Amino acid sequence: MSPLVSPRSAATAIPALLSLLTLALASPAAGHAQQPKTTAKSVAKATPTEAALDRLAKQPAVAKAMAALQRENEWTLTEQVGLCEIPAPPFKEAARAAAFRDKLAALGVQKLRIDREGNVIGEIKGTGPGPTLVLSGHLDTVFPEGTNVKVKREGTKFTAPGIGDDCRGLAAVLATTRQIIAQKIPFNGRLLVIGTVGEEGPGNLRGVRALFSGPLKDSIDMFISIDGTGFGITNGAVGSNRYRVTYKGPGGHSYGAFGMPNPIHAMGRAIAKIAELEASTNPKVTFNVGLVSGGTSVNSISADGIMDIDLRSESAAALADIDARLQVALRQALAEEKARWPKSSVPLSLVIDTTGLRPAGTTADTTFIVRTSLAAARTMNVYAPLTISSTDANIPISKGIAAVTLDGGGVGRGAHSLDESYDDRTDGYKGPQWILLVVIGLLTTR
Ligand SMILES: [Zn+2]
Q: What is the Å distance from ligand 1's center to 228 Cα?
């Protein structure tokens, strides 16, 4: 998960009890002139989705699963630590993938396989016909080979690179899957349990891309990624376009060859134009030249000027717009540097390599998957805000498939840093409980 998420709208986390109380009060008193005025919030009647989730939580198999998730919380934590201690650098997730597959096999997940990209895929078949829902976590970390991934535990706090992002997600997926199978919770359709590769930056979502371009691409109706910690619902996908831009020439002596186009000067012209690009705040649009390089010495005209550029927005249209203006700026800089030395016949070229494309989009607040995620949080009396981020859900969201990324509970700190920590506190188990309610809600209610 990208570290930056912005709470967008507040979910109304009204306790289920309050609504039940409201219902009890409302009927007999309806139309009574003397009925005391109550605030709009306190009389909010449960929506059909909310009422369905309240009922679902009381269903015997579901209630048993919820209780077991709390009682056997230590099991979840042991899995989280175990997976975290298997290194999973970008493009080297195979060992963790094999372990995740074996753990799913031990739980009774069927049709387990590892696809060509490296994703672990298994299935749990429901009792009747219905939609196909993906429940996934990502296997990869941002940390390079050789990083010490030994987990240090102090009470409820665990410290290790990747312990929250996304070993918490993977453990929550395992714990939820375990109870769905153990308690024989009835549901319709099919649950695909998946561990993806390549979610973090360098992977450029390669695992989830492969999933949605492979054999399953037309059969997935809904998608949930469990990524990170807390209780957020990410339904807005921040899109990004990343480029490595190179201005190239023959280079030469700074004095002897003076008078020819200079690739670093061309890059400087381009950076000045990028820095002046207009970027809106609503929808949010950002641009950044994050890395520059090139040149060999102070007294040489460099043969190249190289820069890495990142553009982002939550709006696909706004991202396309700033991208178009970037492309113009890069070409104008090239033309201006050439025009500066009209007598020179030395070539100057521009090469634009795409290093990352993550599509933007939104799963609307009104869709079933978002309403169910919010309603399940309300049933549990936890606050779950809607947020915008860059996650595996970007790909299905961009394809118009109902998708969200849910947090895995607990409290995380320092994602993507070596001192990353996860604190289970007293109620980390509520993460998997919430996920279970959402998953079963999506496969049993409408
Ligand atoms: Zn993540």
A: 6
